[in-house]
Amino acid sequence: YYNRWWIFLNAGQQLTLNMTSSTDAYLELRSIGGSLLVSDDDGGGGTNSRIVYTPTTSDFFEVRSTWFAVNTTGSYTLSFATSPNSLMAPETPQAPRVSIETPPASP
After folding, report:
1. What is the pLDDT of residues 31-59, one digit of tens each?
2. Cβ count within 10 A of residue 100
3. Cα separation of 75 and 106, whole Å?
4. Between 49 and which of 8, 27, 56, 76 could a Cys-Cys bridge form, CB atoms 3.0 to 4.6 Å apart?
5. Element (H, E) at 9
């Protein structure tokens, strides 16, 4: 199980993602094509996850939030910051909507 969001970043724009949860949080950052760029289990301290990433190209990136253990669910808080600022939207770059099963269309 995972939730995902899309964020557009410009080359050189630093992204910081934080996921806090009472269960073992796990974060992934993927390219628009689905390649795993970076993941984190406990980098945010305790059971929390943290990713800091600076892309070399401008594009959309997929953020996946889930849990380390298989078949685990629970509540969590996902926060992000960019320098300079950016926008984050659920699921697809074309339209902010949530549909976990449907992959986004390539831009």
Report:
1. 999 999 999 988 888 889 999 999 999 99
2. 12
3. 30
4. 27
5. strand 3-9
